[in-house]
Write a structure and sequence with these properties.
Length: 48
């Protein structure tokens, strides 16, 4: 999640995954976190 509360574009996710591939970092799974009507559409982790 961005620290400055801005939105992340799908191209940003692809760029991060490309950097991981370039640096031999295996990506097992990704999760996109969505909001619906300004409310989180996912469960927060413990302590969040």
């Amino acid at each position: 999640m961005p620290k400055d509360n801005s939105s992340i574009k799908k191209a940003d996710i692809i760029a991060v995954l490309t950097m991981a591939l370039t640096n031999n970092v295996d990506v097992i799974k990704t999760e996109n976190l969505y909001e619906f009507d300004g409310k989180t559409g996912y469960s927060l982790g413990q302590g969040q």
